Structures are given as C-alpha cells and as structure tokens.
Amino acid sequence: MLVGGVYVAAALLTGGGLAWTLWHGVDQPGIALAFGGFVFVGEIARWGALPAAGSPAALDEPWGREPAPLGAAGALAYALLGDCAGQGTTHGVPQVVAVVVAAALAGAVPHVARGSGPALDHVARRVLTVGFAAVCFQPLFNSGELDRLIGHGASYALFLLVILCLTALCDAVLAAAMLRARTLPRGAERTGAAPVPYGPLLRDELRAIVGIGSAVCATGAVMALAVAVAGLWALPVFCVPLLLTQLSFRRYVAVRTTYRQTIASLARATEIAGYTPPGHARRVAALSTAVGRELGLSGPDLTVLEYAALMHDIGQLSLVDPVPDGATARLPACEQRRIALLGGAVVRQTGVPAAVAAVVEQQADPYREQPLPARIVRVVNAYDDLSGARAGGALAALEELRLGTGRDYQSEVVESLARVLARGGLAPVPPG
C-alpha cells in the first residue's frame, strides 16, 4: 500500500507538472534547457545496475543510495534557482518537475536499452523530493516574499541550507519506509509475520545523508548560488570536475565489487572441496544479514557480518577428514572452537578487515563471551546445519535451537531468526 501510494503521488505530481507546462509554455526556455541538459548528462553518467534492495551492498555503498548524484544535484539546483546572472527567474514548481522528469527519462533511455534502467523507487523519490524542495522555495521567491523577509545575504544561503536539510530528511524517511514495505511479503497481516524494524533502516538512511546525501545537497545549493551570480556558464564549470570525480569513483566501485566477488568465491572453496553442502555459505550469509538488521545492525557492521558469515566454515579446509555434511553444530565444543580458530587464521591471510576474522574466530565461543555478529553466525549456521539434517526441517531446527538457549545460543538471536523466517513464508512458531 505504501509503495503504491508513493507511486501514485509521484505520478500525479509528474502529470500535473507536464500538463501545466504544456498548457502555459516554458518560461525562460534557455535556462530550462541548460538545467535539463545538466540533469540529462547526470543520468547518462549514472551507475549501472543497482544491488538488490536491502542487501549490504545497497545499504553500504554510495551507488545504492543515489545512483545518479550529478543528476540529483542538478535537479535540486533548478528547484532552488532564484536568479540567473543577477536577473530573477520566473519558472515555478510545475516547470521544475516537468523539466527534471523529462531530462531524467531521456537520460535513462540508454540504460533501459542495456537492461539496467533506474528503479521505480528511485524515480518516484526523485520526483517527490525535487517537488518538495521546489514547493518550499519557488512560491516564496516568485511572490517576492523571500526577498522582503530574507534578502540576498548570508541569510539567503542559510535558508537554502534549511530547505536542503528538510528535503534530505524527508527523502530518508520515505526511503526507509519504502524499503520496509518492500521487505514485508504478501500475506504478512494474515500470517502474523512481523515487519522489518523501521529504526535500523531509518538510521542507515540518515547515516547516508552525512555521506553521499550531503555531497549532493551541497553541490545543488552551490550550483544555484553560482548560477545566480555568474549565469549559466557556471553549469559547465561544475559539470566537468563532477563528471571526472564520478568516473574516478566508478573505478573505486569496480574494485569494491571485485572484492565482494573474491570473498564470495573464497567462501565457495569449502563447497567445491566437498566439506560443506552446496549453497550453505550463501544461505548463512543471507539469513545472518537479515537477522543482523532485525537486531539493529547497520552499515559497516552488516558488511562485517556478511563477510564473516560467508567465510565462517573456511577453517574446515584444514581438516584431514571432512565433517559429515559439513555440520559443525553437531561437533563437540572444543572441536568447533579449533575449526573456528583455524578459519580465523585463514581469513587473516586474505586481507579482509580484522573484524571479520575476529567474528570467524569467536563464532564457537560461549555466546555470553561473543559479540553480537558472532552470536548471529553461530545461531544461523546451526539452523542451516540442523534444518538440513533433521527430518522435521526448519520447524524442528528452530525448536532445537530454542532448547539450547541459555546454554549455547542467545534467545534474542534465535527469536529474531524465527521472525525473519516467518517473513520468508515460514509460519511463526510460538516460543517453546
């Protein structure tokens, strides 16, 4: 319902802006064309295909937050544009929306042709946030009230900063709410499945404001102020260095992507060697990440958890005789700790952060001595081992984990796992 409502609101705003502009014509077409071209170039230079919504890559990396930062900055600059080379502008909110949408759609055509077009969630948020900024600024400027109340000094720049802060805050609230709605499957109300907690998702989005969000907002404000003084020549002055910066960052993104792929490939070594069942590491990583988010982990902590979950069984490669079915949960505690320490030693040789190796080493320690990521990996690994080995499957595995709380597993982590599984289609099981 929420996502559909956002789509409807964005569609109504877009339709209204386009209809108004077509009916009344384009005010100051040269300025509109210049900013439309800037947004178009920004959309052409956008990142490629985005990570899956809610994955650590989408939450931790800049391209998961704003796939077209140059286009977003240009759109905000047009929404907050009051003067151009000392002369007042006359475009209003409908024209801002129409120009931004038209330029964004035109810039998305090559990406759509390659099968990596923008996600509808990003498009809807772009329309609503730009519309919000324009509504806050354009009526006050065009009516002369802004000049009468604030003038054009430092208070004017401060006013733009306040609008941008409110815009970024609204976008963060909207993005977290849409992601929460996306992670709740159909029929959740009927089955009683609990939704993903909103707090950690909102915290992730607010944290992103300090990074890529603040850069986009600051660039948009400075562009609007620069055009007000220097005219449209300020746009190419901004465009070239920003494009070079984005292209350089694209190389950094490629390195990070290769890094993730290398860790995932290393994690499959135990499967290829026959030490663990196929897909075990990926299942443990996916469930661990979901449980971590349920328990309030976010950002870099989720990334450490994901890497540790992928590599948690790497110590089995040091064993002469494989563990039957790779199920370390059935081994004596001393043998589990020995394998965990061997795994940590291997992980430390791969160059991943030391925090990842520490989680791998501590996954078999008594849970009261473990940090939260290690507790999560221990519970999820045991669940995957037990659900594949027992005739009762998932329900029997959960029941056995609950029986082990207070001794081997933390009850909060086990119940969080049960809620995550319920959202994935498993009927919730009352605590034993």
Describe the 3D structure:
It is a single chain. By secondary structure, the protein is mainly α. Helices cover 71% and strands 1% of the residues. Strands 1-2 form a two-stranded antiparallel sheet.
Structural class determined from secondary elements: mainly alpha
> So what's the overall shape?
elongated
**Unreliable sequence segments:** 49-64, 187-192, 425-432
Element order: H for helix, E for strand = HHHHHEEHHHHHHHHHHHHHHH
Computed Rg: 26 Å
Strand runs, count = 2
Strand line-up of the largest beta sheet: 1-2
Termini separation comes to 34 Å
The portion of residues forming beta strands comes to under 5%
What does the average pLDDT come to? Answer: 80
User: Roughly how much helix do the residues carry, as a percent range?
Assistant: over 70%
- Could you give a short account of the major beta sheet? 2 strands, antiparallel
Number of helices: 20
